[in-house]
Write a structure and sequence with these properties.
Layout: H1 2-15, H2 23-29, E1 35-39, E2 42-45, E3 50-53, H3 56-59, H4 68-81, H5 93-105, E4 110-116, H6 119-136, E5 144-148, H7 157-162, H8 166-170, E6 179-182, H9 187-197, E7 202-207, E8 210-211, E9 217-218, H10 223-233, E10 237-241, E11 265-268, E12 280-285, H11 286-295, H12 310-325, H13 328-349, E13 353-358, E14 363-367, H14 382-391, E15 394-395, E16 397-399, E17 406-409, H15 417-443
Bound molecules: 4'-deoxy-4'-aminopyridoxal-5'-phosphate.
């Protein structure tokens, strides 16, 4: 077995270019985990080591790991019809049923879905559909997309260009034009930018209801209402990116529901299948849908091979059935409150825990050198906490963009109170250990 694991590690180093990973670390040490099994909130690696998946992997495994019923549905659909095209008006049963189901659960008048294979494709699709919409409406100058400074929208060319977090954009030195970055949660700054750029040049404003990769930033209560009014006033489309916040994550079906606002377009992915298949999409309002139908006389020239993939759509339908029948949205709300209470206890017991926040099961802990002044450490310590937590059986993530020193977590919605307590205990031990190491470092 050891020899087999060693061989796998060597093959990984030699042949696997990992997504969003430190390549030198991988080349030196190989993969940090080779996961082989999952059950509920737990993941197990090839060496039999078990960890709590405090991130739902990539904020997506909402119903938890190891659900046999998902495999059964996938097998049934694959055996009957694994794939057929949705181009040229071809269709299939799971895609039709899922589109109808989404119209049923989505906020307000969002009624039609364009399917993709993930979040990045969904964002690129949204920007293209928004611009195409204005072309059809006879306003082709409306093409700029306004996005926020701490946003993350994915890694396709449009999605990267829309991502406010600069390191992602600096990765490549040529981006898509016509993206503008506005101060993170200021509706006033949005208004000023629109005035400055000219509303007749702007297609849409895009925002995550709660920013995920940027550090779990929760907007002030009135923010999205004001944004909605501004979009209406200046005739822009409002796009929400619900790729993380959709399907129960924040304790409501969709994150924007906390703000009682309905966007014109809504991107989704991740939690729609809980990671059991690759699927995303963009929902558009009934009004936009009718306008497309009225003005688009030719072919809608945008489509992915896997748009409306029958197996992925059947898996999504089963996933939504599970989320609803097991009341996982309510559970996210309740367990989210438990998690936040745990964070607050950490704030009391650990001298380096600063601000804590959570909405449903999406949470963040800021690390500070001084709780009173919120002074940061010179070098971020969150990555040390993440590495140490993994050794103690908990996988979470650090965010160090923009001078942040933040831990973020988003466990599966099936998590129970005991497992939340376990997470908090591991966090307390880990943060203490890192604090002691740090103090030793400055003393000697
Ligand atoms: N939008 C948001 C808000 C995301 O968090 C992500 C992924 N973390 C994406 C888009 C991109 O999704 P994908 O990785 O599936 O392309």
């Amino acid at each position: 077995m050891n020899q087999y694991i060693h061989e796998l590690e060597e093959l990984d180093k030699k042949h696997f270019l990992h997504p969003t990973s430190p390549i030198q670390q991988q080349q030196q040490h190989g993969p940090s985990f080779i996961f082989t099994k999952g059950e509920g909130v737990m993941l197990e690696d090839i060496k039999g080591y078990k960890v709590i998946d405090g991130m739902s992997s990539l904020w997506n495994v909402n119903i938890g790991h190891g659900r046999e019923e998902m495999g059964k549905v996938a097998l049934e659909q694959m055996s009957k019809l694994a794939f057929s095209s949705c181009f040229a008006t071809f269709s299939n049963e799971p895609a039709i049923k899922l589109a109808a189901k989404l119209a049923d659960v989505a906020p307000g008048h969002l009624s039609a879905t364009f399917f993709t294979s993930g979040g990045s494709e969904s964002n690129d699709t949204a920007y293209k559909l928004a611009r195409h919409y204005w072309i059809l409406k006879g306003l082709p100058k409306k093409k700029k997309i306004i996005t926020r400074t701490k946003s993350y929208h994915g890694v396709a060319m449009g999605a990267t260009s829309a991502t406010g977090l600069k390191p992602f954009r600096d990765f490549t030195n040529s981006l898509a034009p016509d993206f503008h970055y506005v101060e993170n949660t200021s509706s006033e700054a949005l208004r000023q930018m629109i005035e400055l750029e000219g509303p007749d040049t702007i297609a849409a404003f895009v925002a995550e209801p709660v920013q995920g990769a940027g550090g779990v930033h929760i907007a002030p209560d009135n923010y999205f209402k004001e944004v909605r009014d501004i979009c209406d006033e200046y005739n822009l489309l409002m796009i929400t990116d619900e790729v993380i916040t959709g399907f129960g994550r924040t304790g409501t079906y969709f994150g924007i529901e906390h703000y009682d606002v309905v966007p014109d377009m809504m991107c989704f992915a991740k939690g729609v299948t809980s990671g059991y298949a690759q699927l995303g999409g963009v929902m558009i309002s009934e009004r936009m849908h009718q306008d497309f139908a009225k003005h688009s006389t030719g072919t809608l020239l945008h489509g992915y091979t896997y748009s409306g993939h029958p197996m992925a759509c059947s898996v999504a339908l089963k996933n939504l059935e599970i989320i609803e029948s097991e009341n996982l949205i309510d559970r996210a709300k309740q367990m989210g409150a438990e998690m936040l209470a745990g964070f607050k206890a950490l704030q009391k017991s650990q001298s380096i825990v600063g601000e804590v926040r959570a909405l449903g099961l999406m949470g963040a802990i800021e690390l500070v050198k001084d709780q009173d002044t919120n002074e940061r450490f010179q070098e971020p310590v969150a990555p040390l906490v993440v590495a140490e937590a993994a050794k103690r059986g908990l996988v979470i993530r650090s965010v160090v963009f923009d001078g942040q020193d933040t831990l973020v977590m988003a466990p599966p919605l099936v998590i129970n109170k005991e497992e939340i307590n376990q997470m908090i205990t591991i966090l307390a031990e880990t943060i203490s250990a890192v604090e002691i190491t740090y103090k030793k470092g400055i003393e000697g």
